[in-house]
Amino acid sequence: MSRALIIGxxxxxxxxxxxxxxxxxxxxxxxxxxxxxxxxxxLKAALxxxxxxxxxxxxxxxxxxxxxxxINDYKPELVINVALPYQDLTIMxxxxxxxxxxxxxxxxxxxxxxxxxxxxxxxxxERFEKAGITAILGCGFDPGVTGVFSAYAxxxxxxxxxxxxxxxxxxxxxxYPFATNFNPEINIREVSAKGSYWENGEWIETEPMEIKRExxxxxxxxxxxxxxxxxxxxxxxxxxxxIKRIRFFMTFGQSYLTHLKCLENVGMTSIxxxxxxxxxxxxxxxxxxxxxxxxxxxxxTVGKTNIGCIxxxxxxxxxxxxxxxxxxxxxxxxxxxxxxxxxxxxxxxxMIGAAMLLTGKWKKPGVYNVEEFDPDPFMDxxxxxxxxxxxxxxxxLVD
Length: 399
Ligand code: NDP
Known about the structure:
Elements: E1 2-7, H1 11-22, E2 27-34, H2 37-47, E3 53-58, H3 64-74, E4 78-81, H4 88-98, E5 101-104, H5 119-122, H6 125-131, E6 134-137, H7 145-156, E7 160-170, H8 184-191, E8 195-199, E9 202-206, E10 212-217, E11 221-227, H9 231-239, E12 245-251, H10 254-265, E13 274-276, E14 279-281, H11 283-290, E15 304-315, E16 318-329, H12 330-337, H13 341-358, E17 366-369, H14 376-384, E18 389-392
Parallel strand pairs: 1-2, 1-4, 2-3, 4-5, 5-6, 6-17, 7-12
Antiparallel strand pairs: 7-15, 8-9, 8-12, 10-11, 11-12, 13-14, 15-16, 16-18
Helix pairs in contact: 1-13, 3-4, 13-14
The structure holds NADPH dihydro-nicotinamide-adenine-dinucleotide phosphate.
NADPH dihydro-nicotinamide-adenine-dinucleotide phosphate binds next to helix 1 and helix 13.
């Protein structure tokens, strides 16, 4: 029925490809294109023989002309961008030029500045609208499912939501003293940045890891979590009616934090290029090269993730508390698609968002964040495709 072009062949892309093949009624044909074609071919070799027809291609997604040529050649209805945030704008440009729908899982970030925000991508709204094509931004788990959860809470349980706490817990253990569970460069840029949260119409900035809380996560147990800036705070702050405060917390173990501090102290997390043996290198990119590849962590990671949102607000004049979350088991993910739960919890929503678009349930010309669509078919699809959610109206709250 539809043809999708998947850009990227890393940890998340691997899950997207598996899931598209499982959903072959929607994804009749896919092309996997990335910088290193052998990785695309390896994915094809692992999944060929099913109902979805798979092809592969080499592309430098920093190059708009190459992207346009590939899209004109393959003629997909949709491009699923699971490369890196640096490529968001070039891929959106190519989609505009070829009138092709677009979906990603992380907002644009310039390679030379550790700063991410939606302004660059929201600036494409009018052009996508005029071209009659849809862009769905941030359709992983967080951002992604956290926005769908918020739209669902708003639609069914609240007249106004006043506070949202997004809690991202990885209770998994990969056995290494230090490794990141998605692209190390993007992950370390995110967690070493200043924290911030949105309160009463303004951003409050904190030092990195300054605000710490302990939380007893269902099915995982007690963990320390730290307040971070995260991209969905920006869109939910605008799109959720009545919101007064929104925060994002992520759990980190002591070993991860100690290693990160040490790497920071010796300059290994810097993105400023330095001269080394006559060549310019970026310390963080070098660090990425020596750390374990996140795509290789699946086999050795045990334990569970729990990612969800706690809402406080009012319905019919009464205060309501609501917590909705997903628990995902690293080893179960590995058995199903050969990856750990972080790639899984990102790749499954990306496939679902793509299917929503291709089946017309989430299709409207312009550039949108996920909470701007009807959450109900997506919530059903989460249960169907491997990320079932649970809810409670009596959650432990975060102070
Ligand atoms: P990986 O590093 O494992 O994979 C990235 C892939 O993109 C690699 O195959 C890489 O190619 C390819 N790539 C990089 N640059 C280019 C380029 N110029 N042209 C073509 N291909 C390129 O990352 P992940 O799979 O872990 O993450 C993918 C995306 O998912 C990231 O944007 C990340 O931020 C996002 N993410 C979102 C989450 C969410 O919940 N919303 C959670 C986790 C991740 P090569 O193999 O040659 O290096």
